[in-house]
Amino acid sequence: MAGKINSTAQPILGASGNMIGFCLVVITSFHFTGVSTTSIIDEITAATSALFTISCLFAFFSIKSDDSIKKLKYETIAEYLFIISLFLVLFIISFITFSLIK
């Protein structure tokens, strides 16, 4: 079981950091184009960025924790937040794609 602990915390930490950058690029793009006033997508992207940030924090807490029960708990929270955030990114990309097709 000791090998299982932190098996996903480090990849989540790196991937979440990268996805925060993606979310910030989307928000910036929407503000530069002026679409942010007519669309709710920038608010959804900001919330997604916040979830990725929280996921990043829990992954970091999992890596740094000395207690194996806390490590597993933090890692599980980070995993759930990460997967929820990924589904939101899927929604954002779908929304942008279908908006561009019209």
Description:
With 102 residues, the chain is mostly helical. It has one domain. It is 81% helix and 0% strand. It contains 3 helices and no strands. Helix 1 runs antiparallel to helix 2, helix 1 runs parallel beside helix 3 and helix 2 runs antiparallel to helix 3. The longest helix is centred in the C-terminal third of the chain and has 34 residues. It is elongated, with a radius of gyration of 16 Å.
Order of helices and strands: HHH
**Which ranges are low-confidence, i.e. pLDDT below 50, for 5 or more consecutive residues?**
none
The number of domains: 1
Helical amount: over 70%
**Terminal-residue CA separation:** 51 Å
Q: Report the mean per-residue pLDDT as an integer.
A: 88
- Residue share in β-strands: under 5%
Structural class designation: mainly alpha
Shape: elongated
Return Rg in Å. Answer: 16 Å
What is the strand tally?
A: 0
Helix count equals 3
Largest sheet: none
